[in-house]
Amino acid sequence: MKWSYYIYYRVDAAKTGPCAVAVEYLFDVVLRKTAVRGRVMKKRNEPLLWMEIYENVADEAKFEWELAEAVAGSGIANLLQSGSGRHTECFSE
Question: Is the dihedral of CA 64, 66, 72, 76 positive or negative?
Fold first, then answer.
């Protein structure tokens, strides 16, 4: 079974530029380690609510490990709104 990951969070308004760089870092690392390409979306009328999407993940254990390592290396946690965090939802067809 293949899974799709939807990870959403609120970005600090003063840190959108560095956050975009961190997200690109995540995408690069995850793609190299898992062959899964990510993409980011921003909510209509709420541009600080971002969502990373990773689709067709076959090996969820490896993907989750590599994503967690990439997140730790990206520093993205320091770019989110105070008191906020990354929230993950996972779906299959």
Answer: negative
How many Å apart are CA 33 and CA 14, to the nearest integer?
31
Distance CA 37, CA 19 (A): 18
Q: What is the pLDDT of residues 17-64, one digit of tens each?
A: 999 999 999 999 999 999 999 999 999 999 999 999 999 999 999 999
Burial 63-72 (b: 16+ CB within 10 A, else e): bbebbeebbe
pLDDT beyond 90 at 93? no
What are the backbone angles phi and psi of residue 45, rounded to the nearest 5°? Answer: 65, 10
What CATH class has 3-92?
A: alpha beta
Q: Flag whether the pTM goes above 0.90.
A: yes
Delimit the domains of the chain by residue range: 3-92
Q: What angle do CA 8, 39, 50 make, to 5 degrees?
A: 30
Question: How far is residue 74's CA from residue 30's CA, in Å, rounded to a whole number?
Answer: 12
